[in-house]
Amino acid sequence: MNDTAAPKAIRVTSVLTLAALLGVWGCKSSPRSNPAETRSEAKQEAARDSIPSLDNSTSCLVDMMRNPTGPFHFSMLRKDSDLPAPFTSEADLTPETLEGSTSTSSGKEVHKISSVHSDPHGWGVAVMVLVAPLPSASGAMRMAQSTVTAVGADPAGGYDTIKYVFDTSRLSATDKLATKTLLGVQDYSIAGTAWITKGNQCMVKFTTDFEQHLKDGTISKVHYEGSATKK
Question: Which 3-state string (H, E, C) describes 97-112?
């Protein structure tokens, strides 16, 4: 997916992540493990393993738009604290047709979008324009992946989904250091909620707030939200 297909007014934040591998050495002689504690640790490990990748889940949403299996309505918003209006997009998609529109962050332009699935190139361009802010939103969520926890079953938009929350305020200063250095900021925070389908793990609804405290003292805030709703 490429943000360059978006209207000129859209500014996409490039975000990267770093992964660190930590090795923990134990003593040769250790006390006998407690069966109850072992079971609890196993459950916690299983819960961690069941947490879906937010990045992959957003990619699944885009794939759902590229090849709809049924009709649904899509909408998305990106609001930057230093711009007069948000970028918004919405569309009705069916397996055959796509009809929608976008409005730029200037607040003055609305662009109609229309395509048919029999035109793969035109359809692909239309989808990229509709999801223009999604790569930067996904990048922010990727940086908060280690904080994701499951809230529980919570249907959204007619889909059978599990609700997840994430918040980098749970991270220690040490945990955030590498990303702060990478972003070149004094501090940052990322928090949000995602509703992901139980089967193919597609993100069908999300909200994300990405705040950066810059070294010159200014604060940059970006709010994202998006959803897919069955029709």
Answer: EEEEEEECCCCCCEEE
Q: How far is residue 165 from each of residues 46, 158, 206, measured CA to CA in Å?
A: 18, 20, 10
Amino acid at 169: S
Q: What is the domain count for the chain?
A: 1
Full residue range of the structural domain in which residue 112 is found: 45-230
* Residue whose pair of structure tokens reads 């702060």 in the numeric block: 180
The H-assigned helical ranges of 101-196 are 120-130, 134-143, 173-183
Taking every pair of Cα atoms in the chain, the longest distance, rounded to a whole number of angstroms, is 70
Residue 77: inside a domain, yes or no?
yes
Give the pLDDT confidence of 120-179 residue by residue, as tens digits.
Answer: 999 999 999 999 999 999 999 999 999 999 999 999 999 999 999 999 999 999 999 999
Lookup result for tokens 């970028």: 87
Residue 30 counted as domain residue: no
- Angstrom distance (rounded) from CA 119 to CA 34: 62
